[in-house]
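writing this on my phone so excuse typos. first protein, seq and then structure
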Amino acid sequence: MQFKYIFFILLFSLNSFGQGGIFGKNPIINHENHDKQKVHWGYFLGFSSYNYKFDYLTVGKDIELKPSTGFNVGLVGNLRLTEYFDLRFEPGFYATQRNLIYPDIEDSVDRLREVKAANLHFPLLLKYSALRTGNARPFLLGGVSATLNLGSNAKAPDDNYSDRFRVKTWTQNYEIGFGIDLYLDYFKFSPSIRGVFGMNDELIRDNDPNSPWTGNIESMKTRAVFVNFTFH
């Protein structure tokens, strides 16, 4: 599924909510005291697209990267700080795959490297919410995160010469995003979109410093987009 279809679904959902009175004139106020809780919990489901940002040692053909859409699931813990600020912890599981294509390698098998990841993601985010209008309240959020890649192959002695692409087990990131809280009859629904930017080089080089897969890479950092649907 491409992300443009996800956006269409999101826009259609918001339009449906609008027709139902959430954005209409004089709506019935739902869960008026929900945000006044000191601590509350929720969960999220969503989609993600992971990419890499490459920096190279010498000029040459860029590695072609074909990301696929993965899925997300996790929990949300929210600590109210003030009327407009909250601190959030959103641990989750993110499954994804990135296909790296090396244009300078002739063999079709060696040219492709499938980088699969089963990530445990631990973001700590500061959320700023605007003034609530009826049953809607837009917000911005940003913070830092750490990611544990359960499929990193970091401890494997084999490398790309044995068809094994290796990355580091832990990575650090910063994140920024936005969304909207919608106060429905029975729960609060919060669609959001967030960008994730890796801060450290994640690549483990092959044993041969002249490896065609890793020899010319100066750094390889995660870039990702999360679309999450949170239920409180």
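second protein below, same order as before
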Amino acid sequence: MNDETATHSLSATTEAKISAAYNGAPAAKALLSPIHTTQIEVRGDVQAGVWREAIEWPAVDWYAITVPIDTAYQGFHRYGLKVCGQSMNKVFPEGSVVVVINFGDLGRLPKTGDFVVAVQRCSKTDQYEATVKAVQIRDDGTVILWPQSWDPAFQTPVVLPPQNGGDSAGTPDVMIQALVVGSYQPNPKASFS
């Protein structure tokens, strides 16, 4: 008998075990439950490095990606931003898309451990600049925006003074605009170092 025509049969015991594993076991059914998805629009990019002018792309340049529906954020408007730069490459390599929800929509403030999009008013041009970082909030209210990078050039955090509700002369107007709730990496690259 050659390999192309060989047939194998399972014993009744083995067949019963396979049937029980795939048909009757709760764990097997959980593995087979569908993942519900939706499409979101990628509307612009965000710098993972230094502050960079925050520009939403023209609507004709937006594109859609399919992402899983996260039941924790069901019903909230989500959108995508393409990551540019190396300051978050441990978590969001350059070219990744971060899926975000504005904090104004969420009705909550940032918490330590959140990944966020922060926006500041540029003192020179009066335009807005944005960056993506990890947030830490100290007991005294000081907010620290941390890079998450392998690159030694991107290890310095941005320290924001405690917010007391008023503006101080000469202090950039910084706000944490959006919570990163997911990410998508369209073209992962192999690394050999």
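The longest strand covers residues 37-47. thats all i got for now
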